[in-house]
Amino acid sequence: MMEKRVPIKFKPLYKHWEQNKLNYVFHGGRGGGKSWEIADFILIEGARRKHRILCCREVQDSIKRSVHKLLSDRIVALGLTAFYRVLDTEIRGINGTEIFFSGLLSHTVDSIKSFEGATITWIEEAQSVSGFSLSILVPTVIRTEKPMIIMSLNPKLPSDAVYAEYVVKNRDDTVVVQINYTDNKECPKYMILEAEQMMRDDYDQYEHIWLGRPKEIADGAIYKAEFEQIKRENRICKVPHDPNLPVYTSWDLGILDPTSIWFFQVYGKEVRAIDHYEANNEPLAHYARILDEKKQQYGYQYEKHFAPHDIAARDLSSGVSREQTMANLGYRMNKGARLGVEDRIEATRQFLKNCWFDAENCKHGIRALQNYRREYNDKLDQFKATPVHDWASHSSDAFGEGAININKMTKATESAPPPPPMRQNSWMG
């Protein structure tokens, strides 16, 4: 193996077995060399002793969307071709070390147990990992002796799960290191020139791309303009439940992925998103129980529940539709129209113009709407028409279901009494 000089900011990785830490978070902008240095550490450590190493990301629909190719290239660069055997979907060392790759989005609490035994876990592109994925991954991979979790990210939004939980918070179990192109002695000259040009032309974009400062709204976000307006008008704030108004819910029903629910109240043209809930791999009885609990705890008086058109489809195993199952649980669902993606997006744009969000209760849902984006085509250097299907899709689709049913929410509120005086003096300011 060739001699390896380790940059000072990456030395904490090599001292893991001497210190009482679990997480190593490397964040920053483009050109910092984070992936190369982490890849080198993994390969060197895997050659020193037997490891089971998991390299994961939120979405991995093919091995090409992983660090498999990066690790393969670094094996050659480090002179480790005689030690590692590169296979189509994994990498194996002659000492028994195995490196495997997976997406997190497709996993459930049960299926993620296949990751048990991982001694090192590398979460790449961690800015895209959802809070739910973290909640089922971390308890699984910390069951080994002296486990190690490495996270690398170019921050997108300050509310991104990894950034909010591991970078912003001061955690005793975490080493946080910021790495930018200015820290990378091997950063190519053309990248430095590109960074300096952007610094002169667009300093805000320079801070985000090259210095890793999070943006409030993701690039390519479908509702970017709407949320910029919402932010200017301070419509993400404290929005209390009004006991004088009925509560409407809108749903996106998942089978092998999350189910999301929004809770709305409407007064005139004003839409108030007062609550939001999302969970994964739970039966419908779980969501009915959530509705019951919110009714008991907060006094929600439900008027209508809006669900996608496919709620009427019968389950192949039971022969009973989810619509009937919810009815049996005490909740009659209103089946939505069969509309295309663009129709739903346009309805949501109009819906957002008059919408206020409770900052705390709707935190995850707001983040999803801000991250709902179109897929980027690297070859054409433009965004595709198709929205990305990831963790942000479910809450966004549920919100869209509310948008296309707004006219069915207003009838019951026409004769409702005006909202309480606290509205003018608090969240409306």
In short:
It is built from 14 helices and 17 strands. It has about 425 residues and is of the alpha/beta class.
What is the radius of gyration computed over CA atoms, rounded to a whole number of angstroms?
A: 24 Å
Q: Uncertain spans, ≥5 residues at pLDDT below 50?
A: 412-429
The average pLDDT score comes to: 88
Major sheet strand order: 3-4-5-2-6-7-1-8
Number of helices: 14
Number of domains: 2
Features:
429 residues, alpha/beta, Rossmann fold, Nucleotidyltransferase, domain 5, 2 domains, seven-stranded mixed sheet, 14 helices, Viral_DNA_packaging_terminase, PBSX family phage terminase large subunit, Phage_terminase_lsu, Terminase_L_N
Note down, in words, how this protein is organized.
Residues 410-429 are annotated as: Disordered. InterPro entries: P-loop_NTPase, Phage_terminase_lsu, Terminase_L_N, Viral_DNA_packaging_terminase. This protein is α/β, with parallel strands linked by helices and 429 residues long. It has 2 domains: 8-201, P-loop containing nucleotide triphosphate hydrolases (Rossmann fold, 3-Layer(aba) Sandwich), CATH 3.40.50; 224-425, 2-Layer Sandwich (Nucleotidyltransferase, domain 5). 32% of the residues lie in helices and 21% in strands. The strands form 3 sheets. An 8-stranded mixed beta sheet has the order 3-4-5-2-6-7-1-8, sandwiched between helices. Strands 9-15-12-11-10-13-14 form a 7-stranded mixed beta sheet. Helix 11 crosses helix 13 (391-403). The longest helix is centred in the first third of the chain and has 15 residues, at 34-48. The model is unreliable at 412-429 (pLDDT under 50).
